[in-house]
Amino acid sequence: MATYKELLAQKAKLEEQLESARVKELETVIQQVRQVVAEYGLTAEDLGFASRRGRVAAKKAIVAPKYRDPKTGASWSGRGRAPAWIGKNRDKFLIA
């Protein structure tokens, strides 16, 4: 039966073999992919790899305000967290 140190040595040797086999296969795959991309004239966008910087964010619709503070003129659409000035009775701040 092999000792712990012998098994660790075998493991290290196998990991080296794994890495070299992986590198060889990657080189082959990369060549194949480059060939196919060149043949068909594919772009990063075609493959779904477009950068996020290039994407335009969807614009949020602006909602008209429903409430206004008569003292400061601040308004609130009724969406999201309620402002401190609105209190519990929202009816008196409702925009007609």
Automatic annotation (TrEMBL):
Subcellular location: Cytoplasm, Nucleoid
Molecular function terms from GO: DNA binding
Coiled coil location: none
Keyword Nucleotide-binding belongs to the record: no
Cited Pfam families: Histone_HNS
Domain DNA-binding protein H-NS-like C-terminal stretches: 57-95
SUPFAM superfamilies: H-NS histone-like proteins
Keyword entries, A-Z: Cytoplasm, DNA-binding
Broad class of the protein's primary localization: cytoplasm
UniProt superkingdom: Bacteria
GO cellular component, one term: nucleoid
Family the entry assigns: Belongs to the histone-like protein H-NS family.
Protein name (record): H-NS histone family protein
Organism field: Ralstonia chuxiongensis
UniProt lineage: Bacteria, Pseudomonadati, Pseudomonadota, Betaproteobacteria, Burkholderiales
